[in-house]
Request: fold
Amino acid sequence: MRLCLAATLLAVLLGGCTFGVPIGNRGQQPSSGVPATPPSQQGNPSSYVVFGKRYYVLDNSAGFVQRGVASWYGTKFHGRQTSSGEIYNMHAMTAAHKTLPIPVYVHVKNLDNGRSAVVRVNDRGPFISGRIIDLSYAAAQKLGVDGPGTANVEISVLAEGEHKPTSVVRSIPLNTELTQDLPMFIQMGSFSSQLNANNMVQSLVAANETAVLISHLQTDDGLYYRVRVGPLFDIDEANAILSRLRGKGYQTAHIVVQDDAE
Reply:
């Protein structure tokens, strides 16, 4: 679907935008160590049931260490919503765990080959007996789990500011895999009135948000004008922008993945 840029934004958009994440810092763990991870508004019930079994989410993950089998999940779930509400990106360094509060950063060591990595747990699973963590495809590749499918691992939760001798890897190039990886957007609102959409665009520009666009969606109920920020190709970057926007008062903002038809 064609994306229509508001005329008043052309000069701003031509200036470009890094979306608040310095490009030179991609692929490196922040110098201050593990960032603060406020609990997700969803994904942290006191308990939940899957396949008839009840799981109890930990109130506190400090000092948590666990050994067991790791597996990984990829294309089938790429672009779907995780338990935390974030969009799963198989090329980001993330993982799923049954009981850790989310999100949380975890150091994973492959006991079979000695490799290690840091992942951000933002999903629930795996719900197979004996398995303790489900890695994203990128994490599985770094740890050497993608080939055999599973591996014996030790996982340990990292406290805020803590360092481990490894890097957080974000493996999505900015411009080289656009045909394979659907772009993400922060959707600010969807309006049946173009005037209302334009008003939100102006509000975002006044709030120093530059990469704003309006896309059209034709439905059986009529034409809708969707105000979005993006496109984005990194789930960590998208979540950082989402947090920034909500901090500016846009509480209904949420991450969406561009449909194939768009």
User: Anything to note?
Assistant: The radius of gyration is 20 Å.
